[in-house]
Each structure stands twice: as C-alpha cells, then as structure tokens.
Amino acid sequence: MSVLVLVLAVTAACCLGFGFVFQQAAAAHAPKRDYLTFRLLLDLMKVRSWLAGIGLMVCGMVLGALALGKGEVSVVEPLLATNLLFAMALSRHRTGQRLGRQGWAGLWLLALGVAAFLVAGEPKGGEAVSSPLRHWLVVGLVAGLALLLTAFAKRRRSRASPALLAVAAGLLYGLQDALTRVSAERFSEAGWSGLLTSWQPYVVLVLGVTGLLLVQSAFETGPLRMSLPALTAAQPLAGIACGIGFLGDQVRTDAGALAWQAAGLAAIVTGIVLLGLHPAMPEGPVRRGTHSLQRH
Q1: pLDDT number for residue 286
Q2: How far is 198 from 176, CA to CA, in rounded Å?
Q3: What does the alpha-carbon distance between residue 104 and residue 98 come to, in Å, rounded to a whole number?
Q4: 161-196 b/e (C-beta count within 10 Å ≥ 16 → b)
Q5: What confidence tier does 281 reach under pLDDT thresholds 50, 70, 90?
Q6: CB atoms within 10 A of CB 296
Q7: In what helix (H) or strand (E) does residue 283 lie, and over which residues does it extend?
Q8: What is the pLDDT of residue 284?
Q9: Residue 32 carries which DSSP code?
Q10: CA-wise closest residue to 161 among 153, 173, 169, 171
Q11: Left, alpha or beta for 198 (phi > 0: left; psi -120 to 50: alpha)?
C-alpha cells in the first residue's frame, strides 16, 4: 500500500466522520413531523452546519474514490470504515457523552469485522454477468430488503428505528455503488449518448436522494452511535454482494478465507448489537461555541 493511498483513505474517513457528526447534530433538532418525508431535507438545507456536513461528506466521497482508483478495494474499504472512530471522537468532544467500555468494544468489533471480511475475501473485479434476470433479481432483493426495513421503522418507531433506517440506507448506497460502476462502464464504452439512454444513472440519482433521506431520518431519531455503525457496516457488504451478484466480482472461497469472513460477519453483528443495547445516555451539553443549529 502506497503512502498516497493511505493518506487519501484516512483523510476521506476523517471528512466522512466529521461530516456525519455535523449532519446528525442538525437533524436531531429537526421537526419530528418531517420524519421520513422530503420536508426533512428541505428544512435541513436551511441549516449552515448541515450544509457544512454535506460538504465534508462530499469531500470524503471524492477522496475515497481517488483512493479506490489508486489502491485495492480490500485495503481502502477498511480504512474508510474508520470514519466511525473520527465521528465518535468528535461527537464526544462536542457533547461530552461517553461511550464507555461497551460502546467502544462495539465500535472496534464492527470496524475490525468489516476489515477482516474485506481483507480475507479480497474482492476483485471480474466479467459482468450478462443475464438480465440475475441483474434484476439482485437489485430487487437489495431494494426490497431496504424497503422492508424502512416500512418497519416507519410503522413502529422504536429504539431500533435509527439502526434499521441506517441499514436500509447502507443497502441502497451499496447498490448505488454497484450501479455507478455500471454507469462508468457504459460511459467508457458508448460515451454520453450511451450513458444517458441507459436506466442506471437515473436510478443512481434516486438511490442517492432516498439514501440521504433515510440517513437523516435515522440521525433525527437517535444518537450517532445508533445509526452510523450500522450504515458503515451495511454499505460495503451490500456493495460486495451486488458486485458478486451481477458485476462478476470474485472473493476468496478457500477454507481459511471463508472462516475469516464468517468471523468478520460475526464481529459486525456483535458490534452492532453491543451498540444497540448500550444504555441510553443523556444528551450532554454542547460546548460553548459549537452549537450546530444556527439558522440564518
């Protein structure tokens, strides 16, 4: 791994983590009637700190894309997952909340689980699957599961709702990543005419806006620790599943690799459960000069 890839990936993770903190701080004060409606995004667009958070997130995505273009997915993705650590560190600084041993254990298990799964699997590109049926089956399964989780979270608003919405958003973002790759291939093969006459770029746009709404609704209904870990875990795993499903990506399937992948998945689930069962913490006071809801 080159120093440039390391710097790009870690800087991207830092921007993503800090951006999520600013977004959640603003969304937490949004009107509750905006829950899972596009009014939420319209209201948040009036908040400068939220716009700053979106700007940081975009910077993180650009830097992450540059890192992925210069390094292996199995190396870059685990580094991008460290945005959790940056986010939780800044969140603690701003609010004074403490995660405690259980919270930090959950975070580390989740981050290491994602890293173990990606490094052991060593996902790599292959020849795209030509079968339209398989293509639509994978897209339908991922989108359908996200829709099911969203419907459950909307119908039964509970302590688990932020995590459910975050997983749903992660699934859509993973699908978006896969369809972005398809769109890039169409563009390289047929130029703008081939890109604009295909359905993938338009679905990418819809998935991006819908995923953003789900994430902000998750941020609105609970603290960052309830949503961001689930989002961070779901997106790369969904992206890999879509890659294997219809892009022809391959992962290692020898006994040792499968064992590490299973251990990684177990760590991810355990980490999310530990964070989800973490005792509810009272909102700590935001330190002077860092209040995020300045509407001007």
Answers
A1: 43
A2: 15
A3: 9
A4: bbbbbbbbbbbbbbbbbbbbbbbeebbeeeeeeebe
A5: very low
A6: 5
A7: none
A8: 39
A9: G
A10: 153
A11: beta
DSSP-assigned beta bridge partners for residue 124: 250
CA distance 240 to 30: 34
For 291: left if phi > 0, alpha if psi spans -120 to 50, otherwise beta; the answer is beta
What average pLDDT is seen over the chain?
A: 82
The pair phi, psi for residue 195, each rounded to 5°, is: -70, -50
Residue 190 and residue 64 in contact, taking contact as beta carbons nearer than 8 Å? no
CA-only gyration radius of the chain, Å: 19
pLDDT at 209: 94
171, 234 contact by CB (below 8 A): yes
Token reading at 138: 């994978």
CB 242 within 8 A of CB 175: yes
Identity at 10, one-letter amino acid code: V
Residue 124's identity, in one-letter code, is K
Answer for the pair 165, 150: CB distance below 8 angstroms, yes or no: yes
Coil, helix or strand at residue 34: helix
pTM of the model: 0.79
Position 33 pLDDT exceeds 70:
yes
Over 90: is that where the pLDDT of 211 sits? Answer: yes
Q: What is the pLDDT, as a whole number, of residue 149?
A: 94
Q: 271 in helix, strand or coil?
A: helix
